[in-house]
Input
Amino acid sequence: MPTVTITDAQLAALEDIQGDLEAAYIDTYGHIRPQDAMQYLLDTYTPPAEQHQTDTNAYEIIAEAEFPQLQRVAADVDEVPGSGIESATMRGMLLTTLGVDEFAARLQNHATADGETESDDESGGAHEETTDSAAESDPEDTSSEPAGESDSILSAANQLLETHSKKWREASGSEEPYEVELPDGTAVAARTKDDVRQLLFKHY
Output
């Protein structure tokens, strides 16, 4: 049988995987051998091209999501307001809070749920009136939201710029006219004030 030489660090990592597999798949008596752990890694390996395709699809789902879809996701995320901010700002805050994979998964889950709801509505004609009434009282509908609450959230977003006024400045670049100083001392260029707010929210 061919042999493979590995480093001490790789051996320690493989032993950790053995322990995880034993905890997950061995009930009472049994043992996961190093070759079993190696086979598990080979079985679950994802080629880089397929992984890249998965990442690309996730970013496309996020980029194509419209404001109502973003609102539905934000409704379940305490750190992100569901109204009073622009879609670009909401998208950036959700991306920062949830991460790419989780954000894309939640958008897909809501899209699936919406599709099932539409199918149910089409199958029951007498159900239309009830659906219309529910839409009128939908708490996520910004048109029925008190103006004071929206103004308050928008004011809080603008307050972020004032509170951290020493952390951002106008830059000379025409395409990226703003610059934000990060806690580690480096600076990041930003194209709009929404981008500035996102960076400030993320780092401060």
Remarks:
- The chain is about 60% helix and 5% strand.
